[in-house]
């Protein structure tokens, strides 16, 4: 299968390329001619190792030129890429178990790892029952011809659950359609520059800020996440030249806390065209404090582009592409029930009024494009009109065909060419407003935390059996929430569990703990009816329930 995403490997623009952040504060540059040659020589080495079109190759590599060359080397060999995160906050054994779970599902013909990660990779391969050792990336003497490709461009494993990761099958058609949507919505022009610190294993970092600019041979300034955490001003300084970026809401608030105006002295940010915000519910306060920091240097609030997307739709679903200040609304929390109209208590465009607007506020994520239809449905799958809360359903060419190897999720489903996202949302003034996950996970710092993992840990800490505990991700305007239902009348364990949850999900997640008997409702197959339980509690219909203060 041919793909425009690989065309640059045969026709590189030698005058452009990738600037990679160095640890000393400088930048290293390689042009697309050099990168294409290295990728094709890497493809030659992969072919020598037996990699063939349609095979899956897993990569466990830090963000560096070797990673870039190996990624496109896999594509040049016609294989499917599966990027696996390097260890970040997990200890060694947990990380190895997580990687092993991915390898068991992906069944790669080859696992490539850097020298410093080869031990982890080797242990994970052994746990997954894969023979051999990790492959250290190398290049053949001669450049290989770009091989025909199979149907899948990449396997994008959803982050979070160490026990049951799920690989989204992203076809070449999916990826091309979404990359085109991103470029069109962003107003990406031939000479534009992209700057990013997002990790490449995450769909927003990989597809939005890496594959899309490289496929168009745009200039790219690429940092590692740790570069951003240590010196967020370094990222902002990129926009003296760059026009496009993307980040979760917490990153903009982090910059506002850490960066001092004197660090930006002499900077002109008036050419900054797009600062996409996504990966978790967007609060207007985070955007406003960032805008007020940078406004003296020429930054405009109209550069903010709130967006909604997910791996199961390749990446982007909607982005507010209009040149306007983002719209923030505060819904009445009592009206947030599926299939009922949402009452809007207040609304305003981003500005000084947004300071302090955190919990209870959400920002519009734009109007859907015709080729990516979005609808809101109730529990019975019936389409709901504007203003009514329900589940977000996405169709079009970016909707992926499903999870690899028959894996299933509890909230996200693939039905008749559409993705039932498991996210709650509604339309208001033509824009999509997203509350977040409906039951089986919540977004924390851009990554999914799955309730099954939390249930296992809570069962261990509380001493209650796992069958007596159900955790629900609770959608709420501008904040993340969890509800814990426990089949017990005792609450002595609650303080320790609250502290455990604080360490796992952070202090900004609202936790509701409910004890009692007869609380847990299950389907005929034994699965917890998570959202149904929450809505019964909220409506006062859960007899015998007691909320622990």
From TrEMBL:
A GO BP entry: fatty acid biosynthetic process
Domain AMP-dependent synthetase/ligase: 27-404
A Pfam match: AMP-binding
GO MF assignments: adenylyltransferase activity; ligase activity
GO cellular component entries: plasma membrane
Keywords: Ligase
Family from the record: Belongs to the ATP-dependent AMP-binding enzyme family.
Name of the protein described by the UniProt record: Fatty acyl-AMP ligase
């Amino acid at each position: 299968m041919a793909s425009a995403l690989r065309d640059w490997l045969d026709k590189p623009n030698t005058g452009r390329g990738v600037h990679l952040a160095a640890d000393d504060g400088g930048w290293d540059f390689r042009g697309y001619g050099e990168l294409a040659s290295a990728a094709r020589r890497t493809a030659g080495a992969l072919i020598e190792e037996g990699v063939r079109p349609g095979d899956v190759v897993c990569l466990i590599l830090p963000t560096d030129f070797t990673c870039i060359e190996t990624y496109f080397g896999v594509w040049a060999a016609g294989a499917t890429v599966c990027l696996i995160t390097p260890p970040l906050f997990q200890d060694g054994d947990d990380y190895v178990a997580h990687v092993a779970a991915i390898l068991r599902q992906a069944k790669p013909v080859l696992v490539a790892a850097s020298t410093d990660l080869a031990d982890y990779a080797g242990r994970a391969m052994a746990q997954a029952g894969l023979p051999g050792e990790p492959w250290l990336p190398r290049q053949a003497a001669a450049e290989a011809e770009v091989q025909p490709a199979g149907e899948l461009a990449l396997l994008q494993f959803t982050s979070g659950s160490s026990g049951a990761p799920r690989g989204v099958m992203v076809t070449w058609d999916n990826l091309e359609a979404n990359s085109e949507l991103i470029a069109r919505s962003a107003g990406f022009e031939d000479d534009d520059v992209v700057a990013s610190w997002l990790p490449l294993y995450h769909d927003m970092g990989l597809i939005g800020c890496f594959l899309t600019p490289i496929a168009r041979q745009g200039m790219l300034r690429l940092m590692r996440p740790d570069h951003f955490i240590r010196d967020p001003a370094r990222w902002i300084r990129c926009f003296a030249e760059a026009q496009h970026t993307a980040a979760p809401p917490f990153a903009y608030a982090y910059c506002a806390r850490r960066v001092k105006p004197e660090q930006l002295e002499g900077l002109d940010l008036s050419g900054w065209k797009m600062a996409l915000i996504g990966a978790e519910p967007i609060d207007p306060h985070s955007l406003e404090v960032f805008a007020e920091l940078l406004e003296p240097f020429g930054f405009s609030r109209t550069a903010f582009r709130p967006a909604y997307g997910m791996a199961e739709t390749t990446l982007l679903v909607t982005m507010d592409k209009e040149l306007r200040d983002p719209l923030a609304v505060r819904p009445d929390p009592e009206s947030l029930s599926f299939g009922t109209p949402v009452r809007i208590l207040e609304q305003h465009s981003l500005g000084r009024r947004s300071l302090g607007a955190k919990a209870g506020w959400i920002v519009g994520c734009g109007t859907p494009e015709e080729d990516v239809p979005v609808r809101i449905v109730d529990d019975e799958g019936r389409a709901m009109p504007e203003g009514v809360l329900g589940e977000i359903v996405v169709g079009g060419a970016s909707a992926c065909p499903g999870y690899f190897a028959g894996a299933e999720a509890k909230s996200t489903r693939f039905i008749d060419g559409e993705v039932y996202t498991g996210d709650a949302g509604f339309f208001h003034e033509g824009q999509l407003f997203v509350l977040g996950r409906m039951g089986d996970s919540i977004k924390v710092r851009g990554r999914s935390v799955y309730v099954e993992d939390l249930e296992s840990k809570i069962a261990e800490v509380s001493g209650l059996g796992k069958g007596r505990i159900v955790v629900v991700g609770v959608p709420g305007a501008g904040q993340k929430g969890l509800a814990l239902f426990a089949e017990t009348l005792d609450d002595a364990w609650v303080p320790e569990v609250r502290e455990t949850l604080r360490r796992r999900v952070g202090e900004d997640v609202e936790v509701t703990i409910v004890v009692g008997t007869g609380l847990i409702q299950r389907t005929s197959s034994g699965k917890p009816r998570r959202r149904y339980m929450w809505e019964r509690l909220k409506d006062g219909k859960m007899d015998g329930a007691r909320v622990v203060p």
